[in-house]
Amino acid sequence: MTSSRLDAIRNRELWALSATEKARVIALEARSGVQIGRGKSPGSSPARADRVWADAERRVAAEADACLREADRKARERADRKARRS
């Protein structure tokens, strides 16, 4: 699941973000649209939105890594218990 979520974040799909991240991205993109609609520069909003996406990608990658490490630890524990029984 986590790799598909990571791919979704890389493809800028909102469903993969947390609620807080979704709200920040939507607000920043809306702010950019308003500024452009007024004939002004969007300012730093696009860069800030990019930062939200990058932070989300790092967070999900860290979660995936933690899940893999936990699965490895459990497998080692099972193997150790089995080796002690034999």
Folded structure, characterized:
This protein is mainly α. It has one domain (2-85). The chain is 80% helix and 0% strand. It contains 3 helices and no strands. The chain has helices at 2-10, 19-37, 45-85. α1 runs antiparallel to α3 (45-85) and α2 (19-37) packs antiparallel against α3. The longest helix is centred in the C-terminal third of the chain and has 41 residues, at 45-85. It is rod-shaped, with a radius of gyration of 20 Å. The two termini are 35 Å apart.
Biggest pleated sheet: none
Q: Which of globular, elongated, flat, extended, rod-shaped describes the shape?
A: rod-shaped
Mean pLDDT over the residues: 94
* Secondary structure category: mainly alpha
Return the string of H and E elements: HHH
Distance between the termini: 35 Å
Query: How many domains, as an integer?
Result: 1
Query: pLDDT under 50 segments (min length 5)?
Result: none
Number of helices: 3
> What amount of the residues lies in strands?
under 5%
Structure summary, number of beta strands: 0
Calculate Rg over CA atoms: 20 Å
Fraction of helical residues:
over 70%
Quick description:
The protein is mostly helical and 86 residues long. The protein has three helices and no strands. It has one domain (2-85).
Characteristic terms for this protein:
86 residues, mainly alpha
